[in-house]
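Tokens for NACHT domain-containing protein. Go.
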Amino acid sequence: MRVAKGYEIHNHSSGQSWNNAQIGVNHGNIWLTSPPGSLGVDVKQAELLQRLADTVREASADGLTRWGLRDRDALPVRWRIASEDLFDYWEKIQLDGAPPLLEGQFTAIRQTYEAVESRRLVILGRAGAGKTVLAHRLILDLLKNSPTGSVPMLFSLADWNPSTELRHWLTERLIRDYPFLNYPNPNGAKPAERFIARGLILPVLDGFDEIPEEHHSAAIRGISNLDMPLIVTSRPNEYARAAHQTKAVSGAAAIILEDITLDDAKTYLLHSTGKTRAPAWEAVFTHLRTSPYDIVSRNLTAVLTSPLMITLARTVYNDTPDEPGELLNGERFPTAEALENHLLDAYLRAVYTRRNTDPQHKGSPNWNPDQARRWLSYLANHLISNNAQDLAWWKLSTALNSFTRILVTAATVGFVPILAITYYDGLTAPEMLLTWPTYGLALGAINDARFARGRMGRDPERLRILFRSRSKGIRPPKTYLKNSWAEFTSAFAVGLACGLAVGLYYFLFWIRDGLTYGLSNGIIDELAYGFTHGLLGGLIFGITAGTATGIANILVSAMGENHTPQDAVNPWHLLKMDRTVTLARSTAAAATTGLTVGLVFGFTNELGLLAGLVGGTVRLMLSAWGTWLLFVRLWLPLTRRLPWRSKCFLEDAYDLGVMRRTGVVYQFRHARLRDHLATPCRT
């Protein structure tokens, strides 16, 4: 039993207990924690749950530190209870039906949440009001001592389509961001599914307003149907419209964040700068106090009520030689929006300029602020075009149009065999020089069809290749057969397309010969010969190559095991895993395809070698890492949309606080920054 007031534990006992009593005054709540079995999970899953809690805690704490929002530096964000039309009946929220006290400021968000007995809370606030930061603070507070054992986790609703059941979507997101939760037990049950089913995850659903407006009503119904504690953040207007069309989230109370007062903004900016620079801010706030009604003061006062804009102003003027007095220039900044745009642009310039002069980054690439903004703009437009918040490395090429993706894939696949043909035959086999680009176009179209379904590329593989005896955590037969069959069918389909492309070309080639020489031999005979040796031969080639590649993929899958809890959770570890599996699959595909085609068609020509080269290249192109390599590491830098060292650039954006990281994906620090970058650069 643990009896706590705030964060101080007054009494503590461990072990098995049936009756518990506290003599005297109860200071706060009595929390009873249970062993793993009582939570509906075994010891191994309890370890995974603890691993998840540690990972989430580290990510939230790291994010607040990178943004300079530690407790002693945090703005005093305050809130009040929202209007009654934005929350459910008190009888469905509180046991006695009496409204609780739902007022407080930044450090008291846990007390406010726990005052809601249904444990369902909606946090409303305008853009830049601090909703996401407050959510991270609540996550950290709840993880200090969780009475239920549940892990609070942030989920970005921008990527949720309400046509998908919310519970299922949450499970998919858990598996994507924390691959070790996809590690099934011998019965096939995945920890992610079990944790959601047992209520061991507390969903913090961030950004209801990011869902397309036409889905808002369905989204509220989907959230209401999720029968478990939860937290939702949203801008007030979007949530209010949805609540008025249907009803507010069932069983949920609602609070709304208030604007920062001018006095609080002044205190924050003065205390976060050096004493020698404080007079510059004093002059700005003196003007705002003495001339509150002129247009300059009204605009700047409106801007400085937003926690986001205040923290940007701190970075722009407290960490650079720039003078905050320029914010009073009404000709340069005639509107509040112009001031906000200036702070967003100046923020990016400040952080990248400071990074380039930081001795810690000596030897690493310097990003010119203008170049960095252009590259960030591409990423922002990529997210906007996909109506997404999550930036995944394996989806970065989806912003390219289909024509570009098909041509680049065709050129890559056709280039490898053409080099081999030229090496062996010089330019004496022109029909072969055209065969493989034709196949490349077919493959490009097949590959692009995968992007068209949901506008996303292939997900990275989460296997570790083992050249030793497998561990006890073997995948269940059902999962293994499902994955192996998927590998076999995809390889077979691609191989068949390859064969038909080759066969079609030779069919046309023999038709040409029939028209040229067929007066003596008979055009009909040439057409029959072209069909049997062209299309039929191509079909046999495709079946042979596809079967060989499929078997190779199954063998590689047999040597792999799922992600383990000991593996790190970040985008680049996932890329490394996918690269290892892809290279193994591509090598196996090249070897088995080349050998099988050679056995069937003979080793007297280079067909087996060409088939092997193409088989390996094809498998590479169909992988997440292959797509990253071709488009993100080559094509996008060639077209100046991203830097050559894209991984380093994204990591720097994260280190600088321009982006945040959630599991295996990145997000812009704030949707306002993303939307600003998606617009043309302002001077």
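The mean pLDDT is 78.
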